[in-house]
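Proteins fold reproducibly. Next comes a concrete instance:

***
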Amino acid sequence: MNFLRDYFIFLLLCIEKYGLCQSNNGGMYTSSDIPTPAPKFITKGHLYKAVIGDTIILPCKVKDLGSYILLWRRGTSVLTAANLMVTRDTRFKLVDGYNLQIANVRIQDAGDYVCQIGDSEEAKDQVHTVEILVPPSVRPVPQNGQITARKGSSVTLECKASGNPVPNIYFYKKNSHSQYHLSEGSTLTLERVDRNHAGIYQCMADNSVREPAYSDIELTVLSPPEIIAEKTWIHAAEDCDIQLVCTLHGDINSEMMWYLNSFLLDPTDRRSMYSKGDKYILNITNFQQSDFGNYSCVADNSLGRTKKYIEVSGRPGPAEFLSPTYSGHLDRYNLTFKIESIPVLEEIKLLYRKLMMNETYQHPGKWHDQILHPSVQRYDSRTFIMSYIIIALEHNSVYEVMVQAKNVYGWNEVSDIHQFYTRSYEISMEDLEYVMSSISLATRTASYGDKFLIILNVLMVVCLMMKR
């Protein structure tokens, strides 16, 4: 019916434009039989791309149109005939002659638009193709963006995107300060998930049409409680105050409990328990002899129980070495270390040995031990610092040293091994200062290549100094 209506309108326009006359013998004829030039399109068919909601103009200019009628049609539907708007869609109109304007374009406006010289002997068409570009949109699967997985399992995050052209999808992991790219594609698979995988993931859809679109997926990982003890060994003494801290990761509904030597602890006038976020704290004031022992922080949920131990002892803490690795001397080494101890240190045991080594093997020598009764310097209320010079060493050698300390509560554990090296040659401070000042002065304005040669020459001078 629409086609018949459009054809009827077109026929009426022809009659209106040309009119009808009767000849003397009653026959029909046109007002003139003078031949006219054939109409010709000036514009050319083209592909037009427009973003949804924009306005586009499809040009149609004809030379020598004369008395011919110009039509715009889409498929079998006539949109315009001459200057008459046939379509009832108010978004369409003719501008600057017969150019067709489409305002607020929609997805369904995509397709071919034909500008046609309607009543020429051979119908002439000009075709414009319209492609509607659609900005990206994206949604998570499932739509609520919430995914839960058990620790150790595999989980797949998925986002679906739409738009024209088809958008690319990128996955990112959010953290408190930034985000980092993980993968490209509509899915992201995470293997053997743990608490570090939990958090907010963001999928971004981008097709270069306006701004990218974003959507978040929150991943929750169910696991037995995971506890991290801030310190596994704490030094204490009578009448002092101490604090034990355990951090709980995982199920926030887990309950933290504190034990001393396997006995459940309750709050007292000297003992308080509280939490700050994911940190659980045990405070003990006016520490007593009975408070020494092995503490544990324990948490459990439906998936399991976790326990971490913290030893509270009056014995000194392990020695922490402060000396540099390389000695400034041929036959001695200035060993400096600090030890945590509230009571005064009574004795310090020093053990050292030489390493017999070459390019193919390493063999430790015999331990030498010395008991020191130091006049150590107290760094603060909990820390002592001591220096001791180990003498009668061999030059150009590697040594190992350990330290053990004792206070009123007993000996601490032997420290980790500290390794140091004696020098093979000795350079005086005056010579060293001269070398450094020479390098600085000579290379200040030299080129890169010259700097290398200067430093090489200075090093040769150093070698000569060491042979003196």
